[in-house]
Amino acid sequence: MAHPLTHLRSALVVDDDALQRTISAAALRAIGFAELHEAGDGAQALQIVAQSQRSVDLALCDLDMAGMDGIQMLSRLAREHPGIAVVLLSSQDQALIAAVGTMAAASGLNIIGTMQKPLDRERLRGFVEALDRRMERPLRATQPGAMPLEEIRRGLQEHEFEPFYQPKINLHDGRVWGAEALARWRHPELGILTPARFIARAEEAALIDELTWQMLDQSLASLAGWLKAGLDVSVSANLNVNFFQDDSVADRVLALAQHHQVAPSRVTLELTESMAASDLPGMIAGLSRLRMRGFGLAIDDFGTGYASLQQLSRVPFSELKVDRSFVAGACDQAHLRAILESSIELGQRLGLSTTAEGVETVAELELVRSLGCQIAQGYYFSGALSQDDFSRWVEQWQHAHPDAA
């Protein structure tokens, strides 16, 4: 069933082939865009965007065009109109399209999908509906940029930080596995702030430990409340491995679980950052003690940054989370599919549960399920929700999926 667009209205088709423009415009109109613009090259597209009385929400762009080509146009678009979402549609080699998409995303554009011609209407619909779902729960404050350090300190003292919960779904039976707790700041003046506004500064000022303890305490309290209400769920909480340089941390985590009367098996600790630290033995000892007590340990964002094979060889992980960057585009980019498939297979061979992050379309969901992935999360299901909203969401999911309840 089609998802009616609630936030997207205006789209732009950029292609030097008139017939292709007509086909693309018809597809976007069928999806639900009320206002369509067409441009024959990059220069004309930029002019339309600049003169549009209402901002263009989505641009469907070819790459190889006479006049200003798509790559030149995307560079300008990133500087002048970075808020526009973009789908790349080209007859060029898929590896080239993917490279341009990576370049444009690194420049600040919101690249929501890439495709080779001919246009696949259902995949385009999936990209657009995923974008629309992401906009249903805007969490960003209107003013960009990191918050002042003193304001972060004040927020911690006033306990204004709280976890929001993104559902995780068991792909084998459709049940709600639980949720990943994601830090949010309920600012008294600016509303709900996402981690981009405070995490880096909190880390620089050595406030991250206090924030972590507050998030973990509230997450376990939420879990206890859900279990008492009859919800059969678990929770994941994000921890930086450097948190475990203090050898008392494992005991404190266990004490928190006991205080809230939740079984450690209901709690997974998702680990981020490098294990290449001075007290590596101490960290591994603390993590191993928690694993021995029944806590789950997940390697987060596997395949990116510090989340590597070396990590897997050092820590007794129970879950491998495949980063969204490998899920997105895996349906039509062979190299991303190969990375996704090999990551899931590696997790299976190591006896770990596998989670696909950032699932946003039906095609992505079907792919990760077909590859044997056990758990998925992403905007296809829901964004991050407050504690009460998560409870309601689970009830609605169970009502809509009675066989999974």
Instruction: Please work out how many helical segments DSSP would assign.
Output: 15
Q: Which overall shape is indicated by the principal axes computed on the Cα atoms?
A: globular
> Strands across the major sheet, in which order?
6-7-9-10-11-12-13-14
* Class per helix and strand makeup: alpha/beta
Listing every helix as H and every strand as E from the N terminus to the C terminus, the arrangement reads EHEHEHEHEHHEEEHHEHEHEHEHHEHEH
Low-confidence stretches: 138-143
| Average pLDDT level | 89
The name of the CATH superfamily of the largest domain reads EAL domain
Q: Strand count, sense and closure of the main sheet?
A: 8 strands, mixed, barrel
Helicity range:
40-55%
CATH topology of the largest domain: TIM Barrel
**Total domains, how many?**
2
**N- to C-terminal distance:** 22 Å
For the record, the CATH class of the largest domain is Alpha Beta
Q: Please tell me how large the radius of gyration is.
A: 22 Å
Secondary-structure arrangement, i.e. CATH architecture of the largest domain: Alpha-Beta Barrel
Attribute tags:
405 residues; alpha/beta; TIM Barrel; 2 domains; 5-stranded parallel sheet; 15 helices; 20% strand
Question: What's the short story on this structure?
Answer:
The protein has helices at residues 18-31, 42-51, 70-80, 94-106, 121-134, 149-157, 199-204, 208-228, 249-260, 280-293, 309-314, 324-327, 334-349, 362-370, 387-400, and strands at 10-14, 35-39, 58-61, 85-90, 110-116, 161-170, 176-187, 191-193, 234-240, 267-272, 296-302, 319-322, 353-356, 375-376. It is an alpha/beta fold and 405 residues long.
